Every structure is written in structure tokens, then in C-alpha cells.
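Shipment paperwork, digital attachment
Item: protein structure file
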Amino acid sequence: MPDDPGALLWRAANDWQRAAHAALSPLKLTYAQGLLLTALADRTLANGATIQVELARLVRADAMMTSQILRILERRRLVARATVANDARARHVRLTAEGESVAARARAVLGEAIDAFFAPLGPQRGAFAAALGQLIGVRVRLRVPSATAATGHDRASRGGNAESR
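Attachment content:
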């Protein structure tokens, strides 16, 4: 069914996964690893120390999957984890210096991939992001493009920043 929204979303999501994978493969990161690294970088800037389960909630990922991915990133020395003093099951997680560098590069290549993938939407990109956010219960703040948006150099013009409701 060519006009079935579910099938179209599935196809678009698969195409996006391939584009994200291609962008992150030079960094030897999966898309999930890249998302967790960049989310951890954002969370650290905003709040300092982060607990693993908070990171999982932030990206709306399964706590066990998040733990497994962070374990892989820890083996690569991109993150460091430490047990929380009063809870042996909880883990503080932070980026290492190498992790900060890789997270910054991941953010840059994902930004370029996002721009390229969503370019066909043109000025409808923000509305598209808002509609997707509505489907998954996330409020998307649409940003007003700056004067540099026309040249493609303004990262704030990407069409929105997701926030949990």
C-alpha cells in the first residue's frame, strides 16, 4: 500500500538508519552508540554528573540496552562508569576525553546527515518534526531561522529541538 502512513514511516526510518550508519561508520559507532554519546555530552553540559538510568530515560531507550551499549563504549574508553555510593546497581556515567572528542565528531557528522536526509522537506522540516513528535508524545520546539539559515550555516535552523513533555 503506497499511501499507508505506517509503511511510509517504516521505509523512511529504514532509509534514515542507513544514512546515519553511513555517517557514523568512520567513527566506528552504531547509530544507538552515537545517540547515547551525544545525549551524554548534552546531559553533562546541562547537569554535570549523570546516572545511567537517567540517560536511558532521556533518549527513551531500554535501560538494559543502554547498559549494554555503555559497556561497549566503556571498553573503547569513550565513557567511564562508576558505582553510585548508596546503590550498587546504579552507575554514574561520564565521557572520557576521547569520548568528548568522538561525541563532538559524531554530532557534526549526524548534523550533516540530518541536513542532507531532510533537505527534500525544505521549509516543511519543522512541521514534519513537530508531527513526528506528536506521534511519540514529545513536544518539538520550532526555532525561528536566523539570517544565516539561508546559507545553511545555522545549526539552530535545523527545524526543532525535542523536549519531553
